[in-house]
Amino acid sequence: MIGVVIAVHNGERYLGEAIAGVRAQTAGALELVVVDNWSTDGTAALARELGARVLSTPRRSDGPASGRQIGAAALATPLLAFLDADDRWLPDKLERQLAVLEAEPGLDAVVGGVRNFFTPDREEELRGRFKLPPDVAVAWAWSGLLIRRAAFARLDWRGDRGPVETVEFFRLARERLRFGAVEGVVFERRVHGDNLSVMDRPSLHSGYLQLARAAVLARRSAP
């Protein structure tokens, strides 16, 4: 019933834990696709070893947005979920979200809360550089999303804005789709110092400004 997409680049270090979190879901039968973006480590081999179907992005320049689109297109399931390779799901994440969709057929998608944590192998170092934010009740993030395939296709989303593709997607989705939410945390975001949003801050902030400006202009021109 639920297809899971993990789009990843050089994620061997944490991918095993992410896949284990998918396998541990209480929601029932899942279909997992790992889309590898030209990794130079053992990402693809590890994914195959752990029983995942592995696809590849056609170009080295492709990012996670392309990987998510390729993975979604390869799945025929009526529901789609996405997981970043360095995040991890709580075991009942999909079960709780599925219950919301079944109770409210008019909803297109469901999100949930997030808890941030320092990766244990670098916790002492990172505590001196970052301050973890508190739990967030509703996280507009890929790892917290469960969406109907038809709604995902209806968006006709073509993410190509680098680090801000997540912001772009959820801005568009919140304008066009009906969302529900479950109470409490559904996934945990690993802070390891190499996160894309941490490493590419200038591009991220510039992209945020571009998206905010586009949203304002769209509202002004709307009837």
Notes on the protein architecture:
This protein is of the alpha/beta class and 223 residues long. It has one domain: Alpha-Beta Complex (Spore Coat Polysaccharide Biosynthesis Protein SpsA, Chain A), CATH 3.90.550. It has 9 helices and 8 strands. The protein has an 8-stranded mixed beta sheet with strand order 3-2-1-4-7-6-8-5, with helices on both faces. Strand 1, helix 1 and strand 2 form a beta-alpha-beta unit. The longest helix has 21 residues. It is globular, with a radius of gyration of 17 Å. About 10% of the residues have low confidence.
CATH architecture: Alpha-Beta Complex
Strand order of the largest sheet: 3-2-1-4-7-6-8-5
Count of all domains: 1
Radius of gyration, CA atoms, in whole angstroms: 17 Å
Key words describing this protein structure:
single chain; 223 residues; alpha/beta; Spore Coat Polysaccharide Biosynthesis Protein SpsA, Chain A; eight-stranded mixed beta sheet; 40% helix; 23% strand; globular
How would you summarize what this structure contains?
40% of the residues lie in helices and 23% in strands.
Give the topology, please.
Layout: E1 2-8, H1 12-23, E2 30-36, H2 43-49, E3 53-56, H3 64-74, E4 79-82, E5 87-89, H4 93-103, E6 109-118, H5 123-127, E7 146-148, H6 149-155, H7 165-176, E8 179-191, H8 196-199, H9 201-221
Parallel strand pairs: 1-2, 1-4, 2-3, 6-8
Antiparallel strand pairs: 4-7, 5-8, 6-7
Helix pairs in contact: 1-2
